[in-house]
Design a protein that fits this description.
With about 210 residues, this protein is α/β, with parallel strands linked by helices. Strands 3-1-2-4-5-6-7-8-9 form a nine-stranded mixed sheet. The longest helix is centred in the C-terminal third of the chain and has 14 residues. Belongs to the radical SAM superfamily. 7-carboxy-7-deazaguanine synthase family.
């Protein structure tokens, strides 16, 4: 199959347990919770997304004919050094496109594969690092992995109930909402102080001016 990629770039992972790690980001086009068009935001299942995932016109983006072509582009961004190769598949919703061929080709090229997903589609079993970010009102089927990243606060989500899911790390990330940043940060701090299984995760790439 072909793959529609909004953008691709080399950066540092800005969030979660892997924060600070050199990574190639592959942002797939398309999502199953929002069209990406502002006129549809009010009726979307996910209404606070801060990412442009529409089309294939971003830096490094395009439509790749097969897994080999996409992995060649990923490897070109990383460079010749094969040590600790790390790729983050994100979106939109990457599990709309990630398949056996892509996972096999990335592994063959020496990449550790991480995914950032809303969890409404099962993660591919070959992915090395699974990060799930649940959205209120959706049916999350991927309830195990390496990292559960809850954007907080969200109405209709009970963080205590999420503690029963099978994740090695539970992370709270303040909702990036204009005019409410400090209040949301304090809400996360309060929850971590009350429920110590959780950890605070900040979007360090935004603080550093990285993509």
């Amino acid at each position: 199959m072909s793959y529609a990629v909004k953008e691709m770039f080399l950066t540092l992972q800005g969030e979660g347990v892997q924060a600070g790690r050199r990574a190639v980001f592959v942002r797939f086009a398309g999502c199953n919770l929002w069209s990406g068009r502002e006129q549809d935001r009010a009726t979307a299942q996910c209404r606070f997304c801060d990412t442009d995932f529409v089309g294939t016109d971003g830096l490094g983006g395009g439509r790749f004919a097969d897994a080999a072509a996409l992995v060649a582009a990923v490897a070109a961004f990383w460079g010749l050094d094969r040590e600790r190769r790390f790729v983050v598949l994100t979106g939109g919703e990457p599990m709309l496109q990630v398949d056996d061929a892509l996972v096999a080709a990335l592994h063959a090229a020496g990449f550790m594969i991480a995914i950032e997903s809303n969890g409404t589609l099962a993660a591919h079993p070959g992915i090395d690092w699974v990060c799930i970010s649940p959205k209120a009102g959706t049916q999350v089927v991927q309830r195990r992995g390496d990292e559960l990243k809850l954007v907080w606060p969200q109405a209709a989500i009970d963080p205590v109930a999420l503690e029963a899911w099978d994740f090695a790390n539970l992370l709270l990330q303040p909702l990036d909402e204009a005019g409410a940043g400090s209040a949301h940060e304090q809400a996360c701090i309060d929850l971590v102080m009350a429920r110590p299984r959780w950890r605070l995760s900040l979007q360090t790439h935004k603080m550093l001016g990285l993509r």
